[in-house]
Amino acid sequence: MQGRLSVLLETKSKQLIRLKAVQTASDTDYYLEVKSDAKAAKATDMKDQFEKQF
Questions:
Q1: CA gap 18, 37 in Å, rounded
Q2: Pairing of strands 31-36, 16-22
């Protein structure tokens, strides 16, 4: 799996996500690395809201 290219997909809601297979040294399961601008923006907003509390 090492050196695999990522795949760019468009969801039903017209969001672009990037998928890439990830291999671990100690596991035989398959994992996907998922990158999405919408998810990144949501995570940033959640972090900002949490930091405002303190």
A1: 9
A2: antiparallel
Residue 33 has pLDDT above 70, yes or no: yes
Q: Beta strands of 1-54 (E only): which ranges?
A: 7-10, 16-22, 31-36
Q: Own/partner pairs for 10-19, CB < 8 Å, 24+ apart?
A: none
Residues 6+ apart with CB under 8 A from 2: 23
For residue 54, what pLDDT band results from cuts at 50, 70 and 90? Answer: confident
The helix/strand count (H/E) of the chain reads as 1, 3
The edge-to-edge listing of strands for the beta sheet with 7-10 is 7-10, 16-22, 31-36
Q: State the amino acid at position 30 in one-letter form.
A: Y
